[in-house]
Structure formats: C-alpha cells, structure tokens
C-alpha cells in the first residue's frame, strides 16, 4: 500500500511537470506564393534589367532543362509492345508493365484476338499506355 502511494505521487509529479506529455509533431511552414503585383515593377518607376528565372530558389541550376522536360511531359503516352514469355499471364503482364493487375482487361481490349487462357509464347502484344 505504501509503494502504491509513493508511485502515485511520483506519477502525479511527472504529469504535472510535463514529463509524460507527447511532443507536438514538427510542421513545416510554407510561405504562400507571392502575388503577381509583388513581382511587377512599380508604376512610373525605373525598370531594371536584372532577370530572375522562374525557378529561382528551387534548387535549379543555370543549365536547367525544364523547357525540354515540359514538352516531353505534354506528349501523350504511347502504347508499347511486349513479347509473351513462358509462365506469363495477362495479370502478371499488367502488374509488371502497368503496375496494376486489374488492367489485364485493358491488355485484352488492345489485343482482341488474344486468348487469355492460352497465351502464345513469343507473340508480340500491344500494351496500352499507363
């Protein structure tokens, strides 16, 4: 009984001084984007010739190829071909190439003459874009 009272007192002391509190998670604070008028020179003022790249402060370098990658990302994804291997199923091909076994139906739709129960080894089939 005496131990219980002592332990209760110690526990109450720890709680009261914050020894048992959970620490609050650290949260990253992100500044809101600046308004367009903050970026424009003042009306009637002198305009400077200093240019700042649109991606300044984002870890980009002077030889950044963001324009090249933007046009590559805008292009629609292309269908690809796959040669059926021994042991393949439409499900395993869909998982391997499309990341989702449920997309086996998309492969079947792209290859309507294909018998999903008897896949011919060595046959090239069309795989729809991701």
Topology readout:
Blueprint: H1 2-17, H2 36-39, H3 66-74, E1 80-83, H4 90-98, H5 104-110, E2 124-127
Antiparallel strand pairs: 1-2
Helix pairs in contact: 4-5
Structural overview:
- The chain has 130 residues and is mainly alpha-helical.
- It has a domain at 88-127: Membrane-bound Lytic Murein Transglycosylase D, Chain A, CATH 3.10.350.
- The chain is 35% helix and 6% strand.
- The protein contains five helices and two strands; from the N terminus they run αααβααβ.
- The chain has helices at 2-17, 36-39, 66-74, 90-98, 104-110, and strands at residues 80-83, 124-127.
- A two-stranded antiparallel sheet has the order 1-2.
- Helix 4 (90-98) packs across helix 5 (104-110).
- The longest helix is centred in the N-terminal third of the chain and has 16 residues, at 2-17.
- The radius of gyration is 31 Å and the shape is elongated.
- The protein starts with a helix and ends with a strand.
- 6% of the residues are buried.
- The model has no long low-confidence stretch (mean pLDDT 73).
Put the structure in a nutshell.
The protein is mainly α and 130 residues long. The chain has helices at residues 2-17, 36-39, 66-74, 90-98, 104-110; strands at 80-83, 124-127. The protein has a two-stranded antiparallel sheet.
């Amino acid at each position: 009984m005496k131990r219980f009272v002592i332990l209760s007192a110690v526990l109450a002391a720890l709680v009261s001084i914050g020894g048992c509190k959970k620490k609050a998670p650290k949260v990253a604070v992100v500044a809101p984007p600046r308004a367009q008028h903050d970026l424009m020179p003042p009306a009637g003022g002198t305009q400077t010739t200093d240019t700042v790249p649109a991606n300044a402060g984002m870890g980009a370098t002077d030889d950044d190829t963001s324009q090249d990658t933007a046009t590559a990302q805008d292009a629609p994804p292309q269908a690809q071909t796959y040669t059926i291997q021994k042991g393949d199923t439409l499900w395993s091909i869909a998982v391997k190439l499309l990341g989702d076994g449920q997309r086996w139906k998309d492969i079947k739709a792209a290859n309507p003459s294909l018998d999903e129960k008897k896949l011919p080894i060595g046959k090239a089939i069309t795989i729809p874009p991701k």
